[in-house]
Design brief:
The chain has one domain. Helix content is 62%, strand content 0%. Helix 3 crosses helix 4. The chain has 5 helices and no strands. The chain is globular and about 45 Å long. With 125 residues, the protein is an all-alpha fold.
Length: 125
């Protein structure tokens, strides 16, 4: 019997293990609509560029870490006349390296303090 299909656009309810590039695009589209009233979402450069940078970032850092980093990037982003919304391509290419050390240090601190990261444990099982 085939597995039921998951709606990968539903980033609010989708477990991190099922997140993919489509999920991240849905996240950016929803957040830009909510925060800046921008609809439809248009990528930086083109869709293929954004899909590539998101795929590489997902592979390297994982969905949960990226989600936390993107939440911080959205909080810190100040739209301007020339750049009225935040694109995933910009977030990965220009902001991720500034935010990731904080996210990773916090994750390491939690691990050192003995707090259990159940999502990480799932990956081992």
């Amino acid at each position: 019997m085939p597995k039921p299909k998951r709606n990968t656009d539903d980033w609010r309810n989708l477990p991190y293990e099922y997140w993919n590039v489509r999920t991240l695009h849905a996240y950016f589209a929803d957040r830009n609509r909510e925060l800046y009233g921008v609809d439809p979402y248009l990528p930086m450069r083109n869709w293929r560029f954004e899909q590539g940078v998101l795929k590489r970032a997902l592979t390297e850092y994982g969905a949960e870490t990226l989600h936390r980093a993107f939440d911080v990037i959205f909080r810190e982003y100040r739209p301007s006349r020339d750049y009225p919304y935040l694109t995933a391509g910009f977030a990965v290419a220009y902001r991720l390296n500034a935010v990731l050390p904080r996210i990773l240090a916090e994750k390491e601190r939690k691990n050192d303090a003995g707090e259990t990261d159940y999502n990480e444990l799932k990956g081992w099982l």
